[in-house]
Structures are given as structure tokens and as C-alpha cells.
Amino acid sequence: MSSRASFIFLCFFSFLTCFKVSAQNQDHTYLYHICPNTTTYSGNSTYLTNLRTVLASLSSRNSPYSTGFQNATAGKAPDRVTGLFLCRGDLSPEVCRRCVTFAVNDTFNRCPKERVVVVYYDECMLRYSNESILSTLSTGGGMYMWNNQNVTSNQLDQFKDLVASTMNQAATEAANSPRKFSARTANFTRLRSLYGLVQCTPDLTRQDCLSCLQQSINQLPTDKIGGRFIMHSCNSRYELYAFYNESAITIPSPPPPPPRPVSAPPVSAPPRPAMLIGKVSFFFV
């Protein structure tokens, strides 16, 4: 099997397994990880000490889980470690905390000695590196995931247009928001709705976030009824079911209709002046 075929199979398999979530594991559904062994560290090294400091900071109960994003740095080059986490924007602070805590422990199982690591879960992402990763657009680590059901041929063009318009609207909203997150719904058929979600790490500029999301959206497999594309700095996903917590998201309301023109009242003749005996007095009503 070729490396490309293996990669596609892995992405497809990961997509399927993400739905087989046990009650005990519902806050940290593993998706994928990237940790190339081109740069490694040894046990009891300065890098490991700094890494443990960063991970302890990120998983601390004092971390701002309500924002869904945090970063930390420890040490000096060449052993400096910079880390961050990003939780899905519709999750509660407690669910975010549990996912990050699990990720911190899980990373040593999946990437026990690598300096550059990204671990993806359905609910959060954990990333750290010996290089600067803050406020820096990174479109590496691209990963496809999709539903195995195809869109019917007679609805394909309509569906692709709907996905493109919905996701691009969400991307613009996310880029302009402080949390760099947006979710939208749109009617596909009378009985089915399209649900879309996009998110960047909030340390990105508006333009970098929008650029990242546009690249991610362009990679979506829109001939499938559900799919996602994940990169280091952003991710996008659509489905024909509500895969996020709708009650935790404020969906933008459509703009109000323009005000109706107000007709000017008819002009009437001025009232006649009143006359009093003995003197003349004028008044206007």
C-alpha cells in the first residue's frame, strides 16, 4: 500500500472511530497526532524539564479554559519550549479542561521523545515545539476526514454551493471575532440542515485566520455528506447533523429589513383666526 493510500485510509478510519465514543471517553476523542522524530530530546534533559513546566501550566486549574485557548513558554534556546491548547468553541470550560488534562498525559504515550508535537482530539488540540509557534500562521499537518456516504448526484451541485457559501460566511465571521470561531446552519432540504464550524487559534491576525480557513475550506471533500480538514492553525468541518452544541453558540441573526418610507401627512389649510369682541386676537393650533 502506498504512503498516500495509507494516509487516506488512516484519515478515513480516524473519522469512523471518532463516532465510537464511550461514555468514559466522551471528553477526549482522539483523532490524530504528528510528532516527527527529526528532532528529539533525551530523558532527564533540560528540554524535558521545560516541557513539563509548560504542560503543567497549560493543564493547571488556573488556566483560562473559558476562553478555550492558552499558551505558555519555559526556558531559553535551544531548550525553550512553547506550548498551546485550543478547545472547540462550543464547549464548556470544564469539558475543555478535561480534554487538555487528558492530552497532556496522553502526549507522552504518543510522542515520548519528540520536540515538535501536535495531538488532535475532537474536543481540543495540544501543540508544543522548540520553535516559535505563537502568532505565526502554520498550515502544516493537514488532515482530511470524511463521512463515507456520498451526496446524491442530482443534489451534488446544490450541496457544493451550499457548503462553500456557508463555510466562507463562517470564515469571515470567525476572522473578525476575538475568539476566531464561528458556526452556522443552512437549509439543505425541507427536512435536512447543513451544520458548519470553523476555528483558528486566537493568536492569529484577522488576515492570517481568514487565509488559513480559506485554505482549509478549499480542501473539504464536498462530494461527501460530512467532512473536515484540520491544520495546525485552523480547522473546518461540516455535517448534515448538529455535531456541536447549538445552545452554546450565538448564531448571527439576519439583518433587519430596511425601514418602510414614511409618507408625508397631507397639507391642510391653516385655521382661520378667531375674533373676540372688543379686541382682535390671533392664535394658531
Automatic annotation (TrEMBL):
It holds the Pfam family Stress-antifung. Residues 1-23 form the signal peptide. Residues 29-133, 139-243 form the Gnk2-homologous domain. Keywords: Repeat, Signal. CDD domains: Gnk2-like (cd23509). InterPro entries: GNK2 (IPR002902), GNK2_sf (IPR038408). PANTHER family: CYSTEINE-RICH REPEAT SECRETORY PROTEIN, GNK2-HOMOLOGOUS DOMAIN-CONTAINING PROTEIN. This is Cysteine-rich receptor-like protein kinase 9 isoform X3. It comes from Camelina sativa.
